[in-house]
Automatic annotation (TrEMBL):
Protein name: UDP-N-acetylmuramoylalanine--D-glutamate ligase
Organism of derivation: Arachidicoccus soli
Residues that bind ATP: G118, T119, N120, G121, K122, S123, T124
GO cellular component annotations of the record: cytoplasm
Lineage, broadest ranks: Bacteria, Pseudomonadati, Bacteroidota, Chitinophagia, Chitinophagales
NCBIfam families: murD
Pfam families named among the record's database cross-references: Mur_ligase_C (PF02875), Mur_ligase_M (PF08245), MurD-like_N (PF21799)
Length: 454
């Protein structure tokens, strides 16, 4: 429905001109809004071109407050926090603030949405669900936090099904957004600086994924996750619950027993041997696969197609990505592992003695979380960061070798020196990358380059 059938166009102001901002601008324009895009930083050339080609008004390097505060609605980039001064002024004027996924939802028509959130495993699970859907020949798109704007997809190439990776930041500004299938993988402490260092705020944010669901929708969640299960005791859910577990059998949902994954969401039951999962090794990926399998089953995808897709899935770049084996030493790129829970999962899946490259911008890490796995599996830690003090404090005396480096070249060289044949060098930083790199992708790319230069 076009919100703006009257002669007066409503002004939609978009804060942030990245992938989601430009996508939202295109969708809003096509639905009759006057659009103004404002970015306090520099806008990338490709996005400037898109805005200019579509004759969308924009500014960079500033926010023209008067114009922004005259908007009838504001769409803000998920990267802008509530404590931002301009956001406070917008709130004070009672101008509605929405997220890009809310705008996309508004204009998606009759299309269905599978939305995936959680602290860890979102990208892998989202990509796996998408891979299953495309293997089964469904008309679908991969959108959201994984890299392609949901709003832009709706504007330019609408599909019958959207598989969307959704972050807590995107969920913070929804109003009516309602996925047909919601997946909540896990909740561990992360991004607490955005949630007043209160884990409850973060949990509430994640659970917004189901707040608009009805009896016709489905909620897939991890029965083994303490924070999820505690929160579920205090709320009422309207949708159909489909839990997954490694610790107990469930009547509906998925579980693993005797190395067999059982999925029972619809009439058809599916069983798969976990040793057939070529690119999905480790317990964390077994959880991800259960969640994806349930979602696929709810979508009425045949079990043969689900099995085929799980077996042909290739791991994502920068997420437990095999790089090379050099003189018997295996190199794994897990640069996307930016919190300690990710490091825990990465180490848990290691089967050989490991040299761990970790470090960067610490987000308040509690290193005791990985202490047992460090003692059990790690021969040496190569610190990669400008300030490695906390890593030294956490593991000195518990592991023989900890070395400091401040460039990827030095980190890879040191790790290779420390490694012997049949060892694994694992880059799983457990920290943000911004002290030495542009982002986790840049860090992972540099790792791969340096490994190939050995």
């Amino acid at each position: 429905m076009n919100k703006n059938s009257s002669n007066t166009k409503q002004l939609m102001c978009i804060l942030g001109a990245g992938e989601s901002g430009v996508g939202a601008a295109l969708l809003a324009q096509r639905n009759g809004y006057e659009v103004f895009v404002s970015d306090s930083g520099k806008i990338a050339e490709k996005y400037i071109k898109e805005l200019e080609d579509n004759k969308i008004e924009f500014e960079e390097g500033q926010h023209s407050e008067e114009k922004v505060l005259s908007a009838s609605e504001v769409m803000k980039s998920p990267g802008i926090p509530e404590k931002n001064t301009l956001i406070k002024k917008i709130r004070a004027k009672n101008i509605p603030i929405i997220s890009e996924i809310e705008l996309a939802y508004r204009y998606k028509g009759n299309s269905k949405i599978v939305a995936i959130t959680g602290t860890n495993g979102k990208s892998t699970t989202t990509s796996l669900i998408y891979h299953i859907c495309t293997t089964a020949g469904l008309d679908c798109a991969l959108v959201g936090n994984i890299g392609y704007s949901f709003a832009k997809q709706v504007a330019e190439n609408p599909k019958a099904l959207y598989v969307a990776e959704i972050s807590s930041f995107q969920l913070d500004d929804i109003v009516t957004f309602r996925p047909d299938i919601a997946v909540l993988l896990n909740i561990t402490e992360d991004h607490l600086d955005r949630y007043a260092y209160n884990i409850e705020n973060y949990i509430n944010s994640k659970f917004r994924i189901i707040e608009n669901q009805t009896v016709n929708d489905y909620f897939i969640y991890c029965l083994d996750d303490e924070l999820i299960m505690t929160h579920l005791k205090h709320i009422t859910i309207s949708s159909n619950p489909l839990p997954f577990s490694m610790k107990q059998e469930v009547n509906k949902g998925a579980y693993i027993k005797d190395n067999q994954m059982m999925i029972k969401a619809q009439e058809e039951r599916i069983s798969m041997n976990i040793y057939d999962f070529v690119a999905l090794k480790g317990k964390h990926n077994q959880y991800n696969t259960m969640a994806a399998g349930i979602a696929a089953s709810v979508l009425d995808i045949r079990k043969e197609k689900i099995r085929e897709a799980v077996q042909t899935f290739e791991s994502l770049e920068h997420r437990m990505e095999f790089v090379a084996t050099i003189r018997g030493v295996e190199f794994i790129n897990d640069s996307k592992g930016t919190n300690l829970n990710s490091v825990w999962f990465a180490l848990e899946s290691m089967t050989k003695p490991t040299i761990l490259i970790m470090g960067g911008v610490d987000k308040g890490n509690d290193y005791t979380l990985i202490e047992d796995l460090i003692k059990e599996k790690v021969k040496a830690i190569v610190c990669l960061g400008l300030d490695n003090k906390k890593i030294h404090e956490a593991f000195s005396g518990k592991i023989n070798t900890i070395v400091d480096t401040q460039s990827m070249k030095d980190a890879v060289t040191e790790a290779y020196k420390l490694a012997e044949k049949e060892d694994t060098v694992l880059l799983s930083p457990g920290c943000s990358s911004f002290d030495l790199f542009k982002n986790y992708m840049d860090r992972g790319d540099q790792f791969k380059v340096e490994v190939k230069n050995l």
